[in-house]
Amino acid sequence: AKSSFALDLHYTNTDIMNNVSYLTAGEMPLPRIYLYFTISYAILWVVWMLNLRSIQANQGAIIAIASSKRRRSSSSLSRRKRSSNIIIYPIHHVMGILLLIKTCATLFESIRYHYVRISGHATLWSVVYYTLTFIKGIFLFTVVLLIGTGWSMVKPFLNGREKQIIACVLILQVLDNVAVVVLQHQVQGQRSYDDWSAVLHLVDILCCCGVLIPIVWQVNALESSTESDNNNNNSNDNNDSNGYNDSSTTTPDIGSGSSSGGGRSDKKKTLAKLKLFRSYYLLVVAYIYATRIVVYLFRTALDFRHAWWGNFFSEAATLAFYASTGLLFRPRDESRNHDEDDDDDDDDDEEQVELIQQQSLLHNNNSIDDARQ
Question: What's the pTM value of the predicted model, to 2 decimals?
Fold first, then answer.
């Protein structure tokens, strides 16, 4: 004789309010945590868009860091009062779109966990969440790559090898998101789970390495440009000094300093961009290290009741990365920024010009006296 039966197991937990919850003990705080981060991302997006709109309406930038250096000459005071010329590049609009997508993805992740908590499943919300996560992942790496290449801020186009890097990273991101979806429907301990988990970590590491390559290229290009400018300036200084020594009775042409001033301005802009991209390289490395290594090690040290801390620190690091990137590459008046940062150098140059003028006048007066005698 044969016998059969059906067994239906129903597992639930209770949260701190003694409500029934289908989430594990380590996932119960996640709906509220993701909701708080949604509000944070929404605030960043609103501030970013208001800043762009204020600049477009010629009302000045909202996101700005005032310079604390003192001005020592009237020319510096006049430069401070001049009208700003803040530039909005296409990458700034792309960054705003990324912030909006990230806000929506975090919101739907909070909604997904909420419905899993009250009903045990959230099929529709999961589809929306994974779709937005896929778009967000592609947009994030695309924006980081575009910023790293200097697109629209340093140059208006991408070269062939930069396009190849972007294409490779996007393909890897598609594979990465497929692995994430598969892992969500697998049970930990199965052979397929281990295989897809290995694919996910490998692809993620390759993507992180890929986004660093254009930044390194851009830093090297700016360093080469700076070295060539230094060599040109040194050769020009040598020629000018030789020419001044040879013409002992000729008054130096102070007005010709405009060309050298323009070269100095270009050099300052190049040095500022070099410093900016070096800082961004360190920022990206810190973000990758924090979200891929530190968070992973931190999660292994947590017990099952505090597993949500890993999600919290991962989102906190991501929020800090978004805010820092926006602060570094915010729209700004580049010419005014360089002038304010190098006021001391400008004042020294003005003092040198006045000294040369005084020496020239004294030399001419002596020549006139000698001729009269």
Answer: 0.77
